[in-house]
Amino acid sequence: MADSEAEAVTRSIPVERVLVHKSAANEVLVTGADVLAPHRYRVTARWHRSQLVGPRGKDAPVDPLLFAETVRQATIYLSHRYFDVPLDHPFVLSGLHFRLDRPGLTVPEGGELPIDLEVTLQEPERRPGRFTCALEAVLWAGGVRAGSAGLRWDTLEPRRYATLRHRSAVTGEPSPPLPPIEAALAGMLDERDVLLADGPDGDPAWRLRLNLDHEVLFDHESDHIPGMTLLEAFRQATAAQYPQWTLGGADVTFSRFGELDLPVRIEVTGDGRTIDVKAFQAGTVLAAARLEGLTVTGSLTPARVAPVAAAACAAAAVLDQERRLPEGVVRAVTEAGFARHFVPKRWGGTAGSFADLVDAAVALGQTCTSTAWCSTLYAAHGRLAAYFPEEGQRELWSATPDVRIAAAVMPPQGTAVPVDGGVLLSGSWSLASGVDAADWILLASATGPETDRRHTIFAVPAVDCVVEHTWDTLGMRGTGSNTVVAKDVFVPWHRHVDLADLLRPRPDAARCHQVPYPMVAGLLFAAPLLGAAMGAERDWVARMAARTSVRGTPARENHVVADVLAASSAEIEAGRLLLEQAAHRADHAAVTGLAIAENQRDCSRATQLCVTAVDRLVRAAGASGRAADDPVQLRWLDMTVGASHAALAPEAAAAAYVRARLALEAAA
After folding, report:
1. With contact defined as beta carbons under 8 Å apart, do 462 and 440 qualify?
2. Beta carbons of 499 and 457 less than 8 angstroms apart
3. Fewer Cβ in 10 A, N or C end of the chain?
4. Closest listed residue to residue 91, CA positions, set 27, 6, 21
5. Cis bond leading into 411, ω under 30°?
6. In this structure, what is the dihedral angle of CA atoms 181, 183, 188, 192, given to the nearest 10 degrees?
7. How far apart are CA 582 and CA 566, in angstroms?
8. What 3-state DSSP class applies to 303?
9. Rounded distance between C-alpha atoms, residue 212 and residue 224, angstroms
10. Which of 204-208, 219-223, 634-638 has the lowest mean pLDDT?
11. What protein family does this chain belong to (predicted)?
């Protein structure tokens, strides 16, 4: 049996139920663990659809609480296996936080999703009758980084637990049986899963109702309300109050044991995205949580792009210093739907329009050119990957369409040595924008005999490569367009496509996959630069509106200011119209040689117009515009770097246009 086959078999076999404190074998998620270093572990698990508490339809996303439960089980398993905690010692959970970063994560229908947790234990402490620890974990689902979590817990010998339990017990009137609220209101399909009841008249808070026979929430006997049950109730209460809300993460503190027979009151407050929830019993707080919503994305819209711009603005200094997109910005980009924008719909993607992507890139570029550049390229590279064979696409997107793909495909670099079933890829590839946050990387090499060389693109997991941080420029610093190094990385043939295949229309595919690469390459590089130009114009106007001469004359009465603004604003507006026209062609026009060349012409000329316009604004800004943090100058630097991309070269675009135009004329 091959190593990969053996690992697949091992992953499908759960650990013993007693090692994760579960009664039903189906509820055991963990399948094993390996030691990576002192206090560092790799825990493997598997998820399948029958483990979902909530909706279980064909396209139902992964329940984020499945992630939380996996971390909880991993905690118990590691304690027993590696720290010799006796099996009869109860676990007391004091705090839990988690964040699921992949809004489109799904479990394949009829199959399982392989899970890896990279776990780091922090200061494990053993005392007589007690073991205390905390952990931090990174979630990998189907080979894609999908979230992070942390947990704090104690394990106690039974005698100590009984003492603690007795001291913390609360008393009161028993809770009468409560009818559930409507299942759909709680975000559930089955009434048996509903944990909420309406409160008394005049009390907007919910009441907790418990079904002690529930096969998931009460899998094994407990003398108190399980923490995961409270967390599920918090999720349901928030869903009932905010119907469009979807759980994305939580930070929970557990303060006391909840008695099974006493009433529990659940209060929900918040703004519809970040929610505060508390559970009270006998006037005492049992648990408090701050829940974060997750935007389940579709088409790129201004409402979805706005949080990305806000995140980029807040992280501007970090982005510039670290020369890459910070984690919070990357998460916002993913949640907005950039990575999935051109992913085929059969994998849960949007298969969206070029116009929507251009609008989003322009809007984002007005705040941060680097973020707009990387966001647009994550979308563009998903479109290229849609040309891979079916098996290759499945490997990329079977778990989620929100896979960030970086690329270094022009020109071909490195070597691809044929071996049985694929190639061994080696070498270095420069200028891979956004690669630090990428899950996969597209790398191109020359293949085939010397008499018939082909430009071939391969998809490689980012974890199989090394990123050398070679990007240190004056402009576009946050793109992190670094160098990728691979050494004898095996790539199967189902993860390759020849560049020539990207030139051929695909009439049986969605419109975004029918358009040949040269028709849209320039468009996706030009859009962020148009946004930067519009942002530069806005900032320049704001400065001039407040400026007066030494004689007190407002700048609006200065003819030089008038000439500069009139010329630059007209050029930027012309650039906008050219890109709108190019996006419309890409979405709707017949794919002809002339249409392709017109798009190349328009994207190149739009970029040149915008660069000329901002250059004029910078020169007219005066000495104050030379400050290192001047926003107009910073955008000018970004545009100078971005406009140097080969896809926007005016000479090549002009040559392509004249060939197509004159050939058409000659044929007529």
Report:
1. yes
2. yes
3. C
4. 21
5. yes
6. 80
7. 24
8. helix
9. 11
10. 219-223
11. Belongs to the HpaH/HsaA monooxygenase family.
Alpha-carbon distance of 199 to 573, in angstroms, equals: 57
Displacement of CA 512 from its chain's centroid (Å): 22
Q: Does the pLDDT value for residue 5 go beyond 60? A: no
Total H helices, total E strands in the chain: 15, 20
pLDDT in tens, 329-369: 999 999 999 999 999 988 889 999 999 999 999 999 999 99
pLDDT in tens, 158-171: 999 998 888 777 66
- Burial class of 421 by CB neighbour count within 10 A (0 to 12, 13 to 18, 19+): exposed
Burial-class residue 397 by CB neighbours within 10 Å (0-12, 13-18, 19+).
Answer: buried
Kindly state the tokens that stand for 654: 């002009």
| 235: its two tokens | 């999720």
Nearest-CA neighbor of 304 among 335, 273, 280, 277?
335
Can you tell me which residue has the tokens 């109050």? 241
C-alpha to C-alpha distance for 241 and 206, rounded to whole angstroms: 10
Beta-carbon contacts of residue 612 (< 8 Å; ≥ 6 apart): 571
Q: Tokens 């780091």 label which residue?
A: 120
Q: What single string gives the DSSP state of each residue in 180-205?
A: PPPGGGGT-SSGGG--EEPPSTT--S
Q: Which tokens is 406 given?
A: 């970086």
List of E strands, 40-111: 40-48, 91-100
